[in-house]
Design brief:
Keywords: Amino-acid biosynthesis, Aminotransferase, Branched-chain amino acid biosynthesis, Pyridoxal phosphate, Transferase. InterPro entries: Aminotrans_IV, Aminotrans_IV_CS, Aminotransferase-like, B_amino_transII, BCAT-like_C, BCAT-like_N, BCAT_family. Pfam families: Aminotran_4. It is an enzyme of class 2 (transferase). The chain is of the alpha+beta class. It folds into 2 domains: 164 residues, Aminotransferase class 4, branched-chain amino acid transferase, N-terminal domain (D-amino Acid Aminotransferase, Chain A, domain 1, 2-Layer Sandwich), CATH 3.30.470.10; 168 residues, D-amino Acid Aminotransferase, Chain A, domain 2. Strands 1, 2, 3, 4, 5, 6, 7, 8, 9 and 19 form a 10-stranded mixed sheet that branches. Helix 3 crosses helix 4.
Length: 362
């Protein structure tokens, strides 16, 4: 019984041997080392959510006419489990992930998964695979809850059958090489989201549409792409997989407003922590012209990206077909570092958690 949800547990009959697991966890990278199990819940319109279980991780069998393959009804979440100094496995704000998952489902005309089932599935998986949380510096267990349309049909309508799963991956740092600050590419050719679109939903289509821009960023030696608004192609919105903050010389901070921007849980946490310290945090439009001008004048002191995978990472340089400038000294500034230290300290149990964000598993 987990958060009111009962999951049938079917342990993997052939788990990865402990010795091999230890080798894999020495340098897990990001998103390539997977655990032994997965959680799964099925949905049918006439039965609702049913058949909750944790079973051996393995391939799925899909009919070629499965709706997701043709109409892209799919959503997902990203979250992490951490190991505290006391040896406990903990989650960071899983209730917020559950709520955002429901919002994404509503936007994509999919059934809403109750929060207790979402959190229960995550906890059940972490509980059985907690030995996969790596002990390396910055290591964690990245959790990927996702849901897709599994009904077999060809026709443009919401599916009546869905499959919800949670898989887990042992991870280290998101950016290779543990960079002090990353370089971003401003896309002038592509946009991520438009008013009335799916920008605020965490659906695969948003990321698929941005892959060509991310590839362009990589071709130009950059770590991430920055998207501008789809209407005027002027205002900064977000990066390819994370939100963005600007820190000014008066101590205030700014982040683009929601609407077409994904409501990041790390974003919300940063705003709460900063405001509790008396920092003015504005949610308002910020243009590329202002970004370049403020960086040149010194008014803009720091810029950082934030998200579950990246945590809080400084942005040191901006490039693009019309842009090329450095922020501050090109490294991590004191505000960025302080916020990152506080957030990771709360997540990992090395600092007090005044917000009740951390949830112990088991």
């Amino acid at each position: 019984m987990t958060d009111g949800a009962t999951f049938a547990i079917q342990p993997n009959a052939n788990p990865i041997p402990a010795s091999e697991r230890a080798v894999r966890l020495e340098n897990p990278g990001f998103g390539t080392v997977f655990t032994d199990h997965m959680a799964m819940i099925r949905y049918q319109a006439e039965k609702g959510w049913h058949d909750a279980q944790v079973t051996a991780r393995g391939p799925l069998s899909l009919d070629p006419a499965s709706a997701v393959l043709h109409y892209a009804q799919e959503i997902f979440e990203g979250m992490k489990a951490y190991r505290t100094p006391a040896g406990d496995a903990v989650l960071f704000r899983p209730d917020a992930n559950a709520a955002r998952f429901r919002e994404s489902a509503r936007r994509m005309a999919m059934p809403e998964l109750p929060d207790e089932l979402f959190v229960g599935a995550v906890e059940a998986l972490v509980n059985i695979d907690r030995d996969w949380i790596p002990a390396v510096e910055g290591g964690s267990l990245y959790l990927r809850p996702f849901m897709f349309a599994s009904e077999v049909f060809l026709g443009v309508k919401p599916s009546s059958e869905y499959l919800f799963l949670v898989i887990a991956s042992s991870v280290g740092a998101y950016f290779k090489g543990g960079k002090d600050a990353v370089t971003v590419w401003v896309s002038s050719d592509y946009t991520r989201a438009a008013p009335g679109g799916t920008g605020a939903a965490k659906c695969g289509g948003n990321y698929a549409a941005g892959l060509i821009a991310q590839a362009q960023a990589s071709e130009n030696g950059c770590d991430q792409v920055v998207f501008l608004d789809a209407v005027e192609r002027r205002y900064v919105e977000e990066l390819g997989g994370m939100n963005i903050f600007f820190v000014f010389d008066d101590g205030s901070m700014l982040t683009p407003p929601l609407g077409t921007v994904l409501p990041g849980i790390t974003r919300a946490s940063v705003m709460t922590m900063a405001r509790d310290k008396g920092v003015e945090v504005r949610e308002q439009l910020y243009s590329m012209e202002d970004w370049r001008t403020d960086a040149a004048s010194g008014r803009l002191k720091e810029v950082f990206a934030c998200g579950t995978a990246a945590v809080i990472t400084a942005i040191g340089e901006v490039r693009g077909t019309e842009h090329g400038f450095t922020i501050g000294n090109g490294g991590t500034g004191p505000v960025t570092r302080a916020l990152r230290d506080e957030l990771t300290g709360i997540q990992r149990g090395t600092r007090p958690d005044p917000y009740g964000w951390v949830k112990k598993v088991g």
